[in-house]
Recover the amino acids of this structure.
């Protein structure tokens, strides 16, 4: 496809010579490119379509990479990628060895920080601004943060500091009324009120005409320095309270698809001598009807048909772990009125939508606020409810302190359901859930399980709810194994494994999804006459020490396999346990897991292969090890 303007844009400097009309044409071309590429790769379509004009306006007015443009979460940065030299690689978006779906400093000098986890960008921006002040340099610092990300605790902590620091920086609030689902919380209500208020229209018109009266940029420049403060004052809503009271000047809401308006405002706020929050109103999914109509579906979407917007279905007949979890929890909640389900802005992603529908009073969406969600869960547990906190493994990293202090220390019965545990695929290193075994395993009183299939997940959820004290379950993204689901869930014996393949040459003690790979390795080696026992360990904590000792006694080689980091992982735990035995009773050991590096993006199968934790890779290393013995 030919791009009239986009093909000529090598860097943001090329945008500066374009008229606003040409920029508007470029915006359409960028939208077309985003839709075309993501229809094949999948990706964060609606967030990125919503900010095309905003990004073009920022880059037209700023001088990046000298100036710094940050993206909170970074899932809306596709237009930024396209105008910062990555058009030719854009079709590799989110693919193995391709360009990342998020800003990534190692990919481009225009990308500032490793986005992916929400609400961190104001802190990073303030750090950059403070460093600038210390160095005495002059770069502008701007971050684009969504209305939902702004409600995260880290962003609030940063605003608290920004208001005190009073150093120049611009926080662009991209207000589209959406998180992944509809945005929730008091801040969302406040912004709604602000958008709707009469003063908004009045002030916006006033600013518009005030700026209009300055004439073109060239002429405006002359009196700009003198009038910056006045101009910003004109933009401030008179009855504005929240940000103003924190010491952060706040503009009236600006129409976020009007390039001229954004550029004009940007030019003013960039000259302020303190922090400014620039409130921009956009439409999530703008310019593509299916994404505008279903911004939740097109928030992060699999490949889709451009003409109809129909999302391509997976070829697997097996259900996703997430939906098995959602249904199983619903069934549990029908039997037990004390169950309260909690999500931090991931109602759909964690499979809790049916629960929210059926039990709205026992469902809590905290918004992007993992620390608060886990802290609040402890209060519910203290008061005798059974909180079930469903949070992606990677995002639970935010709340490890609350797991430890608020829940584990008082031994509260809180159930932590860690979805997306293990490698997640196309989202890459910010989203792989590879640390939870290590961070859950270290916590006193914690019990932790990993199902090897969906039936096990049902039993494990039931077990977690029947136990006492804090319990964690970890299960992967995507399709399960297609086994029959139990008609009645049962309580599993704590710390007891099950052997799923017999064999006395080698034992693989496997956890969660690795059981399947271990079975594959066992099949491969069986054909070579090597008997590989596969133990589905089920329990990460406490793990089945008897099964470990038995394997050590009976097999020539013992392996552990987990889809998590090796450092601090359960393989290390098993090694430690074996190290207490007399050395002559400990066979050679192999630990399969994620080595000490950040794993990049790609389909999970490819990543397993790269890391040597697929069936073939494990069989190969076992074969090599046996040859050494
Ligand atoms: C700490 C953390 N929790 C949850 C998420 C998952 N997540 C990614 S984007 C998003 C919604 C973001 O909404 P908003 O900031 O308003 O941006 P928009 O998508 O509307 O542009 C959520 C919940 C995340 N990336 N990081
Ligand atoms: C940007 C972000 O953090 C989420 O949108 C995430 O990409 C969702 O991942 P899933 O597709 O696994 O729900
Ligand atoms: Mg939003």
């Amino acid at each position: 496809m030919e791009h009239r303007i986009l093909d000529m844009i090598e860097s943001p400097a090329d945008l500066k010579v374009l008229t606003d009309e040409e920029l508007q044409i470029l915006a359409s071309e960028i939208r077309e490119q985003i839709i075309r590429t993501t229809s094949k790769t999948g990706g964060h379509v609606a967030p990125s379509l919503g900010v095309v004009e905003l990004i073009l306006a920022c880059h037209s007015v700023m001088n990046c990479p000298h100036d710094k443009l940050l993206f909170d979460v970074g899932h809306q940065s596709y237009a930024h990628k396209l105008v910062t030299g990555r058009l030719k690689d854009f079709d590799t978006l989110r693919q193995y060895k391709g360009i990342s779906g998020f800003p990534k400093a190692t990919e481009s000098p225009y990308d500032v920080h490793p986005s992916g986890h929400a609400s961190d960008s104001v802190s990073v921006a303030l750090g950059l601004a403070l460093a600038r002040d210390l160095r005495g340099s002059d770069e502008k610092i701007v971050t684009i943060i969504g209305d939902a990300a702004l409600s995260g605790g880290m962003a609030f902590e940063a605003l608290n500091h920004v208001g005190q620091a009073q150093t120049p920086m611009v926080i662009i609030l991209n207000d589209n009324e959406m998180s992944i689902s509809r945005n929730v919380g008091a801040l969302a209500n406040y912004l709604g009120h602000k958008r709707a208020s009469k003063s908004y229209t009045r002030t916006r018109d006033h600013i518009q005409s005030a700026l209009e009266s300055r004439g073109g940029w060239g002429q405006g420049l002359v009196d700009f320095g003198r009038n910056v403060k006045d101009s910003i004052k004109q933009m401030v809503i008179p009855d504005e309270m929240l940000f103003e009271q924190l010491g952060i000047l706040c503009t009236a809401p600006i129409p976020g698809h009007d390039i001229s308006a954004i550029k004009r405002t940007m030019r003013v706020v960039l000259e302020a001598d303190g922090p400014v929050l620039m409130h921009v109103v956009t439409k999530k999914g703008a310019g593509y009807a299916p994404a505008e109509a279903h911004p939740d579906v097109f928030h992060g979407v699999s490949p889709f048909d451009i003409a109809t917007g129909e999302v391509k279905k997976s070829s697997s007949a097996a259900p996703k772990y997430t939906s098995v979890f959602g249904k199983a929890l619903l069934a549990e909640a029908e039997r037990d009125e004390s169950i309260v389900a909690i999500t931090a802005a991931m109602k759909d992603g964690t499979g809790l939508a049916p629960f929210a529908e059926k039990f709205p009073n026992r469902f809590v969406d905290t918004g992007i606020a993992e620390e608060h969600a886990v802290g609040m869960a402890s209060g519910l547990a203290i008061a005798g409810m059974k909180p079930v906190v469903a949070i992606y493994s990677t995002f639970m990293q935010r709340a490890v302190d609350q797991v430890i202090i608020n829940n584990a220390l008082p031994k509260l019965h809180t159930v932590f359901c860690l979805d997306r545990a293990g490698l997640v695929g196309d989202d890459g290193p910010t989203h792989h859930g590879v640390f939870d075994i290590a961070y859950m395993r270290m916590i006193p009183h914690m019990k932790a399980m990993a199902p090897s299939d969906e039936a096990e997940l049902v039993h494990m959820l039931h077990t977690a709810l029947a136990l006492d004290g804090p319990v964690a379950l970890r299960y992967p993204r995507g399709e399960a194994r297609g086994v029959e689901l139990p008609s009645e869930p049962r309580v599993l014996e704590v710390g007891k494994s099950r052997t799923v393949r017999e064999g006395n040459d080698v034992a693989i003690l496997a956890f969660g999804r690795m059981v399947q790979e271990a079975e594959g390795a066992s099949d491969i080696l069986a054909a070579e006459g090597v008997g590989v026992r596969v133990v589905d360990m089920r329990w990460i904590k406490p793990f089945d020490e008897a099964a470990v000792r038995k394997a050590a006694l009976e097999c020539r080689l013992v392996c552990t396999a987990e889809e998590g980091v090796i450092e601090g992982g359960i393989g290390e735990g098993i090694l430690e346990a074996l190290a207490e035995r007399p050395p002559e009773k400990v066979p050679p050991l192999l630990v399969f897991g994620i080595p000490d590096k950040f794993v990049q993006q790609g389909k999970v199968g490819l990543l397993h292969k790269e890391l040597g934790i697929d069936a073939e890779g494990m069989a190969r290393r076992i074969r090599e090890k046996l040859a050494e013995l």
Q: What stands out?
A: The CA atoms of residues 194 and 480 lie 45 Å apart.
